[in-house]
Design a protein that fits this description.
With 93 residues, the protein is mostly helical. The protein has one domain: EF-hand (Recoverin, domain 1). Helices cover 57% and strands 9% of the residues. It has 4 helices and 4 strands; from the N terminus they run αββαβααβ. The strands form 2 sheets. It has a two-stranded antiparallel ribbon with strand order 1-2. The chain starts with 5 loop residues before the first helix and ends in a 6-residue tail after the last strand.
């Protein structure tokens, strides 16, 4: 019977643990790096969309401004959680 000495087995387990940790994706703010990057790209697209739709540049989207986007038009009430009658960038997160 081939038996691995305990010291060698412990070293192998340690090496495997180090290799697994090195192969794991980096984390940023509790999210894997790829997921954090996707989130940042999404937020950038939402900022750009908001700026494009905010025709008068007042920092909020009235219903008529949001109406230029079919999704925002359909979901305006749901996104306007506090019923203020307009959307701000935080409502699009």
């Amino acid at each position: 019977m081939n038996r691995i000495p305990a010291a060698l087995a412990g070293a192998l387990i340690g090496a495997l643990a180090i290799a697994a940790a090195a192969a794991a994706p980096a984390h940023v703010g509790g999210l894997p790096a790829a997921r954090a990057s996707e989130q940042q790209q999404y937020q950038q697209r939402m900022r750009q969309l908001f700026q494009q739709l905010d025709r008068n540049g007042d920092g909020r989207l009235e219903r008529r401004e949001a109406g230029a986007n079919p999704y925002l038009q359909r979901h305006f009430e749901r996104l306007d959680r506090d019923g203020k009658g307009y959307l701000v960038p935080a409502d699009l997160r």
